[in-house]
Amino acid sequence: xxxxxxxxxxxxxxxxxxxxxxxxxxxxxxxxxxxxxxxxxxxxxxxxxxxxxxxxxxxxxxxxxxxxxxxxxxxxxxxxxxxxxxxxxxxxxxxxxxxxxxxxxxxxxxxxxxxxxxxxxxxxxxxxxxxxxxxxxxxxxxxxxxxxxxxxxxxxxxxxxxxxxxxxxxxxxxxxxxxxxxxxxxxxxxxxxxxxxxxxxxxxxxxxxxxxxxxx
Amino acid sequence: xxxxxxxxxxxxxxxxxxxxxxxxxxxxxxxxxxxxxxxxxxxxxxxxxxxxxxxxxxxxxxxxxxxxxxxxxxxxxxxxxxxxxxxxxxxxxxxxxxxxxxxxxxxxxxxxxxxxxxxxxxxxxxxxxxxxxxxxxxxxxxxxxxxxxxxxxxxxxxxxxxxxxxxxxxxxxxxxxxxxxxxxxxxxxxxxxxxxxxxxxxxxxxxxxxxxxxxx
Lengths: 216, 216
Description:
Chains A, B: InterPro entries: Pyridox_Oxase-rel (IPR024747), Split_barrel_FMN-bd (IPR012349). 2 copies of one chain form a homodimer. Chain A is α+β, with helices and mostly antiparallel strands. The first copy, chain A, contains 4 helices and 12 strands. In chain A, a hairpin with a 7-residue loop joins strand 6 and strand 7 (95-105).
């Protein structure tokens, strides 16, 4: 179960909340990009970046020189999947179907070499499953240049909206189409690097992914 | 042109920066969801939400009771499009092709009734073009319950990455497939509300959208 803190308790629309840890894993594991929130000089900064998960730890990486990773305080990591546009009979009941996870915490710089490498593997595999074992692993110089932060999955909220619009009772009689327009993330046909030998086929772990109907 | 401030100047990978205002408009106008960053009790909070744009103003809305909109200070709004997964010959050169916009500023609560209504229209049309004129407009009670913030598009950065991986020179000889796996956001077939009369056809502005190949 996910514990509820003041800021992870949903003040409004509580029926959208999910409290199982598996729901959190599902949302995080299905994502490709997270939005990392940090406070810089008192102001919020939100940047898209990759991530990975091992058990109850979320990993982020960046250049050792990147300012967004040199944070002292708390960070917030949000992963959002847009699943549909909810088309209601009235303008103000338009909405989205989505799954989102918001994780709060103070990250820990990863210094242990084994954990550092495992985290980089998780981040790479999150983006491109099967790639880690297919490509050149990081060398010493690359490892030294890459900072990794570990964020415990201790304080998080998960929200999910599904289903048709919820219109006002009197609006159901309006002569207006209503429903959901599904939104999906799909993979296209892999595009070879122009510098690649044409004879080299697309590996199964990449090609197989491109034929899936959704990035979930 | 977008002016450059300390935090919108790209410290690293400067070749990804875009400085034309049209590039900012393109990224914002192609989006469905933004990630809104606020500072609450000194900590960052990042939540997904809808938005709209009119000229050089970005609009956000929410319940008048929502804490995320009762912010005194600066906010950050980020819109990200993931266009592809960059599959390199080495693990650490894996990357993403993307377009992102990051807007900083102190929002202004919208109190003028005409601007308030125009902003709600822009937010609805961003999510579902053509819907505003097809559905019941907001009534007085709904308008009173909906807060709108206006964020000037004055300080923003746009980043775009395209193209194949950039591998280390010596890695191009490795027997590894490399290239880009495209990622696209697509609309599915509209799903009618179960409470809708089956005789009501899907309007052209919705059906037409579902046949496009991309949400851009």
